[in-house]
Input
Amino acid sequence: MKTVFLDRDGVINCNRENDYVKSWSEFEFLPRSVEAIRLLTHAGYQLIVVTNQACINKRILSPKTLNVIHRNMLAEIEDTGGRIRAVYYCPHRDDENCMCRKPKPGMLLQAASEHKIDIASTYLIGDSNRDIQAGNEFGVCSLLVLTGNGYKSNLTANTGAASRMQPQGVFENLHAAAEWIVSSSTDA
Ligand SMILES: [Mg+2]
Ligand SMILES: [Zn+2]
Output
């Protein structure tokens, strides 16, 4: 299936400055992100969220609360006609050196082993260099959005190791990226 991988914080919902989303009351959808998810759903894309949540192993947030946040997020998205097929999260801290924390492509590989994914027509949308690097290593078209951390990401770096962080497109927000994906679909 044609698929769009979505980062969560800074793409679907607002980043909290120097903090994590620790409860559903702290979860705030970014403008038009739910509409963008509906647009991609209706265009036939399978949507899969891949999110780093080191707050779990930092013991700031329990897996149970994280699951509540995700259940509520999916319910609101489904209420408006969108659908997210799966949510993968990495609970590890940076120092644990796991295989799933982005920029490593572990969550994408796991998703690919559990869902039918047509790499050639698949995208990843994120707001940080870590996301873009994971998408590029996995071999999909990686798009940077300027919500969240996007403004801080280094867009001019294009030499050596930094080329791995080079996005194939840069968009104002998730909705603009979704419109571009839908309009460039050849099988529409
Ligand atoms: Mg993010
Ligand atoms: Zn991990």
In short: The mean pLDDT is 93. The longest strand covers residues 46-52. The domain at 3-183 is CATH 3.40.50.1000 (Rossmann fold).
